[in-house]
Design a protein that fits this description.
Rna Polymerase Sigma Factor, Chain: A, mainly alpha, 191 residues, single chain, globular, Arc Repressor Mutant, subunit A, 8 helices
């Protein structure tokens, strides 16, 4: 999985989004180029099917360009793209599971496993490998939902409100899941 840029600047998002909405192809290209690797890495957390991930990303970006004049304003493009991509990917994965499984229509959204690895967020030298192994071991003790919330919060800088909207949960549920996850990580890292 490619390394993810941990830092992202939101300062230009509002203007870039506005320019794209008014048909600026260069602004659209910049949005695509700034976010495509990050979205692909996020998609790999749900599926190892590169073609499926690329198809979903293409669908999201095509839809954005086609409906750009009707899109709402945003000052956080990454949040907008992650929410749109996640919705598209889960929709396609549900259809895929439904097609290949007799119980597909009973599959809850949470059964699509989120498998973000902590290695993607650590870009420092080899001396951190032991810490990474310890964190991965602790990370395995978290639920799929807790892993995804931590990924969205700490590796993408999203607020609890944004995470709640992406995951279709209320803010309190996100806070509780994050709090429990952090307690589990602290407990297991200190052991």
């Amino acid at each position: 999985m490619p390394l993810i840029k941990a830092s992202y600047r939101y300062s230009e998002d509002s203007q870039l989004w506005t320019d794209m909405k008014f048909g600026d192809r260069l602004a659209f290209d910049q949005i695509f180029n700034d976010h495509i690797e990050h979205l692909q890495a996020y998609g790999k957390s749900f599926s190892n099917d590169d073609d499926l991930i690329d198809d979903c990303l293409q669908e999201v970006f095509c839809r954005i360009w086609q409906k750009r004049e009707k899109l709402k304003d945003t000052n956080n493009i990454r949040y907008y793209l992650m929410a749109a991509f996640r919705n598209e990917l889960l929709k396609v994965l549900k259809k895929k599971y439904k097609r290949y499984s007799l119980i597909g229509r009973f599959m809850p959204e949470s059964s699509i496993d989120f498998n973000a690895t902590l290695e993607t967020s650590f870009i420092e030298e080899d001396s951190r490998q032991e810490q990474i192994r310890a964190l991965n071991k602790c990370f395995e003790k978290l639920s799929s939902r807790q892993k995804e919330i931590i990924y969205l919060k700490y590796y993408n800088g999203l607020s609890l409100e944004e995470i709640a909207q992406i995951l279709a949960l209320d803010k309190k549920s996100v806070y509780n899941a994050l709090s429990k996850a952090m307690m589990i990580l602290r407990k297991n890292m200190s052991a």
